[in-house]
Please model this.
Amino acid sequence: MIYDIDYETLPKEAMEAIQLRRLRSTLERAYATVPFYRKQFDAAGVKPLDIQSLKDIKLLPFTTKQDLRDNYPFGMFAVPMDNVVRIHASSGTTGQPTVVGYTARDIDTWSTLMARSLMAGGATRGDIIHNAYGYGLFTGGLGVHYGAEKLGASVIPVSGGNTKRQIIIMRDFGPTILTATPSYALHLTEVAAEMGTDFRELRFKYGIFGAEPWSEKMRDEIQSKLDITAVDIYGLSEVIGPGVAVECHEAQSGLHIFEDHFIPEIIDPETGAVLPPGHTGELVFTSITKEAFPIIRYRTRDITALHPEPCICGRTLVRMDKVSGRTDDMLIIRGVNVFPSQIESVLMDVEGIAPHYQLVVDREGNLDTLTVMVEIGEALFSDEVRRLQHLEQGISQNIKEYLGVTARVKLVEPKVIARSQGKAVRVIDNRER
Ligand code: DLL
Model:
């Protein structure tokens, strides 16, 4: 089912006409009300009215996370605080958080986008949504919450954490949709098992997972352990939060971007040049309907490709590949670019391995070393040492073959790697910067 059949199935030309109109009005407002944008546009010698077609967007300067930090906390807001009804922030690992604001209309836009996302992922008004995304400054919890209410579904605002209580609620309330980070979804299955509950006996039908990269292998694992259809949802605070793009449950093949609100581009992260459809590069977004926090050509650092071909679900919205990593979480180990998701794919091919892993990067002398810590399942755990050593070597060999990088593999006991209630921490980088 499609929540907003009018906008989600528009022919390309009609969508582009809407985009251009909305883009021009966003640019005019941003230029008039946000000193940062005025300065940037002036420096680039471009005025909002110079943008005559969607292709002209490439004349506009990029916005980076550093720009948002420089304008911390409210410097990028385009409306007076009187009109701001909500503030969120994304923590980030270093430095100042980025702070974003919403007007009442922005909240309504976002809720509609989330209702559209939830429906694309299989939810309808008859569903009960167990929402285990964190509530708070993080956009996941409240984003899903408002979307679920807009859809007319029943939402359980359980947030992250207190995992045992979550299992009891699941058993007693019979939710049919699970929303969580994919790593927390798997953690829920572990705790459920400890409590003697098999997820497959619960009432869940669909899961809508995102906020961190996850591989197809991890999807298989989640789908079989939970006996559900699992879709990927993407978003970032700077653009609006979750609900920027989502997979449909019919195809589970690429995430539909809500182009009536956001214009996506793929650029070469080195040169900034715009790349054609199908090419992999850095995803850039321009918001075209937001009031409080318009964002223009924002460099997400997320790596993906765009595919304009129509989908079997009927949506005509362009699709992006699952995010394979970030330009900045990309590890460079002795000159080899390594994405945690690539290591994950290798690990998931190994029988008896749990999908919990951590990459530890150290510097020994002048050389970077990569250690892959990975948990083994209970069954393997009781095996003899020699067999485990053999397995470690095998995985290391696969990593070398697949990625061209030498990694030490360390199998660890079940449940040794710290569980996160939100985004999983996949990389520990001990190198000095
Ligand atoms: O993670 C918003 C969100 C909440 C999305 C709940 C989906 C579900 P931030 O905390 O600002 O916002 O983090 C944004 O997380 O630039 C990506 O690097 C990563 N990310 C988000 N969704 C996905 C996904 C929320 N489906 C950053 N796959 C983004 C891969 C994702 N990475």
About this structure: The pocket of DLL is lined by residues 90, 133, 138-140, 210-213, 232-237, 241-242, 300, 302, 323, 326 (CB under 6 Å). The chain is about 30% helix and 25% strand. The chain has two domains: 81-328, 336-429. The radius of gyration is 22 Å.
